[in-house]
Amino acid sequence: MSGIVSQNTGRSSGIPKAVEAGGGAWTLIQTITSDGSDATISFTSGIDSTYDAYCFQFVNIHAETDDATFKFNASDDASSHSYDIAKVTNFWDAYHNEGASAQAFGYRVAEDLVGTGVATVMRNFGNDADAASSGNFYLFNPSDTTFIKHFISTGAVTSSGTYQLQTHMGGYFNTTAAITAMQFSMSSDEIQGGTISLYGIG
């Protein structure tokens, strides 16, 4: 089960000055660290009208299963958190293996989603002991009740087969309801390490 290791309303002193300068100050809202047996990691508070943009920062996320894909979903219900918001996404990445013998860039239609299911943030995690993946997921204006809610994500994935993946995903939640919660999971088995921090930007 996940443990919250920090939660505050003040600006995080751990954010580099260069990052703070781009788009306003970052305020750490909550950090959740996996205890090694998490089917899901959920943020059920702190996403509201306080900020126009939020960032989930993934650091050293480790998968139990080789080739697992890191996923997300959202809820507009502040109590039951049903995680079934309709969304439209697209996904592309570049890869390069440790042997320097294979590299490519491509659009990954298999990772796209139109519907209410879980969507891909980063793909094809390796589960070697030293394998971990990191990245950022930005959510814009989640409390707006006029427009759809955009999101973008980039990731650095230590992939199965000793590949490095640079992943890019974008899309929108196809709803005018306020987004109140976010949930992250693996396509198979558990999240077995790493932290996810939620920041408010502005």
Mean pLDDT: 88
Distance between the termini: 31 Å
Spatial extent as radius of gyration: 16 Å
Main β sheet profile = 10 strands, antiparallel
Q: Write down the secondary-structure element order.
A: EHEEEEEEEEEEEEE
Inertia-based shape: globular
Fraction of residues in H or I helices: under 10%
What is the fold named in CATH at topology level?
Answer: Jelly Rolls
What key attributes describe this structure?
single chain; 14 strands; 202 residues; Jelly Rolls; 4-stranded antiparallel beta sheet; mainly beta; globular; 10-stranded antiparallel beta sheet
Describe the structure.
- The chain is an all-beta fold and 202 residues long.
- It has a single domain, classed as Jelly Rolls (Sandwich).
- The protein is built from one helix and 14 strands, in the order E-H-E-E-E-E-E-E-E-E-E-E-E-E-E.
- The strands form two sheets. Strands 1, 2, 4, 6, 7, 8, 10, 11, 12 and 14 form a ten-stranded antiparallel beta sheet that branches. The chain has a four-stranded antiparallel beta sheet with strand order 3-13-5-9, with no helix packed on it.
- The longest helix is centred in the first third of the chain and has 5 residues.
